[in-house]
Amino acid sequence: MNKEIIFNFIKRNLVQIGLSIAFGAVAIFLILPLFNSKTVYVGLDQVAIRSSNSRTSKKIGTLNQYQTVSVLSKSNHWYHIRYDDTKMGWIPDWITNRSFPKGQKETPLAESIIVIDAGHGGVDSGALGIDQSHEEKKYTLRVSKAIQSKLDHSGAKVIMTRDNDSFIELAERPQIANRNHADAFISIHFDSSGENNAGTGDTTYYYHDNGSIELGKAINKQLINDVPLYNRGVKFANYQVLRDNKRPAILIEGGYINTNSDFKKLSSASYPKKVAKAVHQGLINFLSR
Which chain regions cross the lipid bilayer (predicted)? Predict the structure, then answer.
């Protein structure tokens, strides 16, 4: 078969050849990920399979505890999976290959990414107590870690802006929430007054009307119930960690560090667990709207 015959054959069948090449490319694109996929199991029961990588997208299926699926790809901490042989959808990657108590069901909180911001840190001590060896940064981290533990056991993905005594630029903190498409950002601080023993109570602050007000109200309601401090309510504040945040975001001032009665409570062994309980239930209420 000479070149002219080959050329004429291609010319007469150009459309068919083009379609065959295109079909082959599409088939390879669709089939190849199935061979390259890894297998994971879900640690929770009744895990929702979503139509896209968001907890608010349409629910298209359900997985039972310890059921295995094939991972096709990953995006924003979510896995694109294949299940029941041919069906596809999305689940959070952070609830896979993890052990939870038998029968623990997935909740809206378990589908959520929560950023916890322990205020100050490193060279930035924050406010000081009457005894100036008591630095705000120590107590914000202590409470933040208690919240992290509580949320982690519920299945949420918790991202800490800092988990040790390190300095994090103020501008970077809200960006952590923005980059990770967080469902909520919660910054932990402690108040101080110009004079010792002149202030008291905890306050919840917001900036944007993007779900932040609702988040603040939901968590502040639980602070009233669970934390033995005078509550100053939910208020607007122009703080950078809130102002630069595109996600629902609040800042909790958990009592006055330079007031003896407040400090006795916020420095107690039980205080971090009480705040963690309030934040946990407040988030459940907020995310279940």
Answer: 12-35
Q: Write down the domain spans for the chain.
A: 3-36, 38-95, 109-287
Catalytic residue among 111, 135, 136, 253: 253
CB 220 within 8 A of CB 233: yes
How far apart CA 185 and CA 163 sit, in angstroms, is: 15
What fold is seen in the domain 38-95?
A: SH3 type barrels. (2.30.30)
HEC per residue, 135-180: EHHHHHHHHHHHHHHHHHHCCCEEEECCCCCCCCCCCHHHHHHHHC
pTM value?
Answer: 0.86
Fold category of 109-287 in CATH: Aminopeptidase (3.40.630)
User: Mind listing the pLDDT tens digit for each residue in 170-222?
Assistant: 999 999 999 999 999 999 999 999 999 999 999 999 999 999 999 999 999 99
Residue 136 appears among annotated catalytic residues: no
